[in-house]
Design a protein that fits this description.
With about 210 residues, the chain is mostly beta strands. The chain is globular and about 35 Å long.
């Protein structure tokens, strides 16, 4: 079996094949919270669907994704495994604020640890001071010869209990980093809503 290509971070990482991992500043011996794993098979939208696709050319129906979130005292690890995608294709990927909907824009902007005050629901953050792989969860990867891939992002901060991320979104391009385009990654191709819902909130965070 061909091993998945492990890539993360910005588009330059995809070009070089280098894994970019942001290490958390966890204290020695800090207990890990057991991983909350979300899995789904992408398909056309239907009410209540966990995993949906908006472009079946780039994300063939039946493609799968698994997102595992593990939290520790000083940080969080997000590990993604995908299959059934277009072999050799590069994808941008991030965690987003809202659950998936029939409208690709429904997942809202990227989840940010420090929220860009100049951004909003209809105005995505494109300031590199906020839209960067240290402040957001970037999960770019390139599918291998079988259409599979895996990537891990480890951050030195934890998700907010008041506004946790709610979805994992696949994009058409690797994530850009320049001024005025930082964080953008082309069209939204597919979306996976986090389940089960985080135990510490009652309603999806809209932050």
């Amino acid at each position: 079996m061909v091993a998945p290509i492990l890539l993360a971070g910005c588009s330059s990482a995809s070009a070089t094949g280098r894994a970019v991992v942001i290490e958390p500043s966890t204290s020695a011996g800090a207990a890990l919270v057991p991983a909350a794993v979300t899995t789904g098979s992408f398909r056309t939208w239907r009410e209540g669907a966990t995993a949906v696709t908006y472009d079946t050319t780039a994300v063939p129906v039946g493609a799968t994704a698994e997102v595992a979130v593990t939290e520790a005292a000083g940080g969080v690890s997000v590990a993604v495994t995908v299959s059934g995608l277009v072999p050799g294709r590069a994808y941008g990927a991030h965690l987003h604020n809202n659950p998936c909907t029939a409208d690709p824009a429904g997942a809202g902007p990227h989840y940010q640890n420090r929220v860009d005050p100049a951004a909003g629901p209809q105005k995505p953050s494109v300031d590199p001071a906020y839209a960067n792989p240290e402040n957001e969860v970037w999960l770019d990867f390139t599918a291998d010869a079988t259409g599979a891939g895996s990537v891990t992002s480890v951050q030195g901060w934890r998700f907010s209990s008041e506004r946790p991320p709610w979805s994992f979104v696949l994009h058409a391009e690797g994530t850009h980093t320049g001024h005025g385009e930082a964080g953008t990654a082309g069209a939204r191709l597919a979306c996976l809503t986090r389940t089960p819902a985080p135990a510490y909130v009652n309603q999806p965070g809209r932050g």
